[in-house]
Amino acid sequence: MYDARLRLETLDGAFVISLSGTNYSVTFRRLNEGRGITAMHSVQAEEGAPITPNEFLERCLGCSQGQGEGVGMDHASPRLGLQRAEYDRDTQRAYVEFRGPDDDGGDAIATAIFSYRTSARLSKKQVHEEIVRKARHLLKKAAAAT
User: For the segment 21-44, what is each residue's pLDDT rounded down to a tens digit?
Assistant: First the structure.
């Protein structure tokens, strides 16, 4: 399994995005008037990390604007964040899980399990990106169908 999961936590009114298994983290805080956010990070290159510090910071920036892995701030409530993405080459099945806090104080969990086939020779990272993209697409279609 490709392990580049972003983790979202709330701490003293701030949102902290971190990368599981690394020291990478970014803290987002709302500006006093609520018109925007400020970010603070302490990210240094780490041997064995699944992504570079620059890739992590780009993902966090996109997430804070609601364009990244689905982790970020949408007014006062955080969105669902990518929790897990797995692909079995033998069965050609993918499992993608998004998770985040629910408005009632519980957890919101959305999963997508689907077949993924491609004739292209993709790296593990490319397969990971493709199955996450397809999972998002499937969940959007499901939401539109209701």
Answer: 788 888 887 777 656 677 788 777
pLDDT at 91: 93
Token code pair at residue 136:
């998002």
Cβ atoms 69, 55 nearer than 8 A: no
What's the rounded Cα separation, in Å, for the pair 20 and 50?
Answer: 10
Query: What backbone phi and psi angles, to 5 degrees, belong to 116?
Result: -135, 120
Apex CA 26: angle with CA 21 and CA 111, to 5°?
A: 60
**Digit-coded pLDDT (tens) for 81-126:** 888 899 998 999 999 998 888 777 788 888 999 999 988 888 888 8
Torsion, CA 134, CA 4, CA 95, CA 139, rounded to 10:
-40
What's the DSSP call for residue 106?
S
Residue 61 neighbours by CB under 8 Å, 6+ apart: 39, 68
CA dihedral (13, 17, 18, 19) in degrees, to 10, reads: 160
